[in-house]
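Aim 2, interim progress. The first record below pairs a target sequence with its structure tokens.
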Amino acid sequence: MDWKLQIQKEFDNAERSRSRSNEGQARVCARRAAGIAIREYLTRRGRRIPSSSAYDLLNLLKEDALLPPDLKLVADHLTVRVTEAFKLPVEADLIAEARLLCDWLLNK
């Protein structure tokens, strides 16, 4: 499957999960969509993909000098651990933030 379709599928799954009040699964899907975009971004820049894990790639992306500070914050939000009550410790719409990150990465 082409990477664009994979990203769209993950965002569709994220929205479906959210509509069923499964915010944890929505976060996972948003993170996976970002991971696909990061792999494409790194490939386009001729860089080796060091991991298949979206979590690992998001942490790697935070160190990218070309990534604007607001998107480094998005990458940080996508990697933050939830509380014991399974809630994010920050106010963030991870689906919307992941979309912003993907758009920036894929338009570079």
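The second target in this work package is listed in the same format:
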Amino acid sequence: MTLTGYLILSAILFTLGVLGVLLRRNAIMILMSIELMLNAVNLAMVAFSRFIPGLDGQVISFLIIAIAAAEAAVGLALVVQVARDRQTVDVDDLTLLRG
């Protein structure tokens, strides 16, 4: 597979993630869509580092994976706590953090 193929796949995954964030109302699905976007960026960075010598995209990709894990843990903890308080994970019904 060429660099173009990897970048097209990465763009498709990123677009699906953006659509998931914009169209979904479930907080867990929004978090999953954000993870999909981060993985699309990881794929693009690893593809660039594979085909262009001298780039350290794989090292930065490990950093992004660590950030994604922390984001998932904190985000899921917030969603679980709000779901316990409000009995819903629908982001339209959550006004707890407003004002």
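DSSP finds three helices and no strands in the chain. This observation will shape the mutagenesis plan for the next reporting period.
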